[in-house]
Specification:
The protein is built from five helices and twelve strands.
């Protein structure tokens, strides 16, 4: 049985015990991908950042729960080599605090400056070791110059395909999706996330 590794949800990068830098990812796309993979008869490993329980799939095995980008990378590194397909659907925070306070930072009525450093690039790190028999698909959520930026990510992260979408998909059941790979571009238009997941696996059928 072919195995799919899916990374889903946001990461939360805490700067004190209760506050974090993150994003609005709901995990719904990751859930749709996992459910479609199960329907296709594939085995799923699922790594998720913090999302509501209803946005988690039932995959017949424990889900790996993480909080930060570094934790997601470490969890994915354990499962990457055994995966036939890897889908990077997680919306990883691009930055993390340089330092984390052990105590809640008080509100003093003045501006607060937090120095940030980049989080690890999970897709680029893992796909630098991608084998020819592995398939990797990513997502690119862009506000402008979407096609150009998605193509840059396709190349720089050593992906086989990438799905371009917009901020309107965050938390929604539908979105505007475009598939991009080395052969070209296919504008899928407005789709449910379940239908987007089906189309992704349809694109991969010839390589499964």
């Amino acid at each position: 049985m072919k195995k799919v590794l899916i990374l889903s949800g946001p990461t939360h990068e805490y700067f004190d015990p209760v506050r974090f830098i993150g994003n609005a990812s709901s995990g719904k796309m990751g859930k749709a991908l996992a459910e479609e993979a199960i329907f296709q008869g594939l085995e799923v490993d699922f790594i998720s950042g913090p999302v509501p329980a209803e946005n988690l799939p039932s995959i017949g095995k424990p889900i790996v729960h993480i909080t930060s980008a570094e934790e997601m990378l470490a969890a994915a590194q354990e499962k990457f080599a055994s995966a036939d397909i890897i889908i990077f659907a997680a919306a990883v925070a691009d930055f993390q605090p340089l330092e984390k306070s052990d105590e809640k930072v008080p509100k003093l009525g003045t501006n607060l400056t937090i120095e940030l450093k980049p989080t690890p690039d999970i897709a680029a790190t893992l796909c630098a070791k991608k084998r020819p028999d592995q398939i990797a698909v990513g997502f690119a959520l862009q506000t402008h110059d979407g096609e150009a930026k998605a193509k840059e990510k396709l190349a720089s992260k050593n992906l086989d395909g990438i799905v371009l979408n917009t901020p309107a998909t965050l938390g929604a059941e539908t979105g505007l999706f475009t598939w991009i790979d080395l052969q070209g571009l296919e504008n899928w238009g407005s789709l449910s996330k379940a239908e987007c997941a089906k189309r992704i696996f349809t694109r991969l059928e010839s390589r499964l």
